[in-house]
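Please go through this protein, sequence plus structure tokens, and consider how the sequence yields the tokens. Keep your notes short.
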Amino acid sequence: MSSSSSSSQLRPTLDLLTPSLDFSDVEPVTHPWKDIYSERSTVERNWRCGRYPVRTLRGHTDEVTYLQFSQTLQHPSFPILIAGSCDHAVRVWDIETGLNVRCLRGHIRSVRTLYFDEAKLITGCM
């Protein structure tokens, strides 16, 4: 077998690499860009004009690195915000009252991520 015939057998042809795909029944994805732009514009205008509520949640002694909010949990029955920080703590706030209801300590470094649901709170540090 010659080297030219063996090399042509080893190389796939273009037809094998580009299969024939039929997308005739797929509808194109549309993005509601006008709605997104309008919403973003409204938010930006409200920030510039000072039309937004401000609530300061005190507790962390260093920068906050991660936040998660939920208002739909069965327990607790109030909307909560959980935040991780460079102060090695995770704090839980009742958003309605602004009270820090729990402070979880024990990380040896900055809290960089967290996740919670009805049953668990998972945190990670780095």
